[in-house]
Design brief:
Order of helices and strands: HHHEEEHHHHEEHHHHEEEE
Mean pLDDT: 83
Shape: elongated
Strand content: 5-15%
Distance between the termini: 118 Å
Helix content: 40-55%
Largest sheet: 5 strands, antiparallel
Number of helices: 11
Strand order of the largest sheet: 1-2-7-8-9
Number of strands: 9
Structural class: alpha/beta
Bound molecules: calcium ion
Length: 395
């Protein structure tokens, strides 16, 4: 390198600011960098930092508050739920206590021989008890003789075949209640073992599986009378059919028939059920009946089940009737048969003056939570009872 070129190179290094090209971007980068530094400095000023700290603190407080409210709400919800569960458990315990009280009444009824060999609405178990306050709850109940009704399970024998007398009795009962008598056929098919529908109005699996929500016929005993709502002609979804169900409900039961068909207790039978026993009894049923429509008048919840005013059954002339319970079937026969021939007025065993099956209804009101319990009790000859069926809030 010669001296001239060395001096040129030195000149170009020392006079950089006056160079026209390449100098702009250098300046811009430099300024941006300075601006960032200034921004940082500004951001790091004590006032700015305080602002950010306050916002962060506020956010944390808000988050904390939301979390606390959520926890507290959850705790309150859990506590209320636990409290409700406690009340429900207590109500159920009261329900079972009421059931045992009913069993004791039914036991005493036999042991104290107060009933003179018969069961009637004159007995202690049939009396209404006023609501009993216990702690923060009140408990009330009633006992109803299920043999005052037509037992749907009598319709078939041990082989699952329809029994002529009882199918006839059901048909007569429907007639007494002004319900289409043809509906008896579907009820028979529901309990009979075979799959052949009774002609023309019966219904077996072919009918039920063809419904929008299909199911099959029980082809066995009714577990509860409410099962009738599954039977053709008594659907709860169709207003007229639901009305027929409600109309029939106070006159029917679903009792076990392991020891043969159950008898109707003529002391507690509704006039319609009495009339269904035979054509001979039918015209006299209203006067023969010992059913007292006011039996549960102090207890509307129980009276509701037995609201017989809705049907067009025979009118009873209470003032002119002798309401003394029948102490034997013989006395009942004599009442029916004025000629006193001593002949049975209905097949032997289809009626009686005693009962073994009772439904206990217990209502508990515990701090606004209401519970209704239905228990079917079977009582043996010594008066001891056992629970056959228990349901809550519905039959
Ligand atoms: Ca059938
Ligand atoms: Ca059948």
């Amino acid at each position: 390198m010669n001296v001239d070129s060395m001096s040129q190179s030195a000149a170009s290094r020392t006079s950089g600011s006056s160079l026209p090209s390449g100098a702009g971007p250098v300046i811009t980068r430099c300024c941006r960098s300075v601006k960032r530094d200034e921004d940082r400095r500004r951001a790091n000023t004590p006032g700015r930092q305080r602002g950010v700290a306050i916002i962060t603190a506020l956010l944390l407080i808000a988050l904390g508050t939301i979390t606390m409210v959520a926890i507290t709400s959850r705790q309150q919800f859990d506590m209320q739920r636990e409290r409700n569960e406690g009340i429900i458990l207590q109500a159920r315990a009261f329900g079972v206590s009421g059931e045992r009280f009913a069993a004791a009444l039914l036991y005493r009824d036999v042991q104290d021989a107060q009933r003179e060999n018969s069961d009637s609405l004159d007995d202690d178990w049939a009396q209404t008890i006023p609501p009993i306050p216990i702690d923060n709850a009140s408990i009330q109940g009633c006992i109803v003789d299920m043999q005052g009704r037509f037992n749907l399970n009598n319709l078939v024998n041990a082989e699952g075949e329809a029994v002529e007398f009882f199918t006839g009795q059901l048909t007569r009962l429907l007639g007494e209640l002004n319900i289409d008598q043809a509906k008896a056929q579907a009820i028979i098919d529901w309990v009979d073992e075979d799959l052949n529908p009774v002609i023309p109005d019966g219904a077996e699996d072919d009918y039920y599986t063809g419904l929008e929500v299909g199911y099959r016929a029980a082809n066995g005993a009714f577990v509860s009378v409410s099962e009738l709502q599954l039977v053709k002609g008594f659907s709860s979804a169709i207003k007229e059919e639901a009305e027929d169900y409600e109309l029939l409900l106070p006159h029917i039961s679903a009792l076990p028939t392991v020891n043969g068909p159950t008898a109707v207790n003529v002391n507690t039978a509704t006039p319609e059920v009495l009339a269904s026993l035979s054509d001979e009894i039918k015209p006299l049923a209203a006067d023969l009946s010992r059913w007292d429509t006011g039996a549960y008048e102090d207890y509307p919840e129980c009276e509701d089940i037995f609201d017989l005013s809705a049907d067009d059954g025979p009118e009873t002339l209470v003032a002119e009737r002798d309401l003394e319970p029948y102490e034997s079937t013989l006395i009942f026969d004599q009442e029916v048969d004025s000629a006193d021939t001593g002949e049975n007025v209905a097949p032997a065993g289809t009626y009686d003056v005693r009962s073994n099956y009772f439904q206990v209804r217990i209502d508990v009101d515990a701090e606004g939570i209401k519970l209704s319990q239905f228990t079917l009790l079977e009582r043996n000859g010594e008066g001891k009872t056992r629970v056959l069926y228990r349901s809550r809030d519905t039959l």
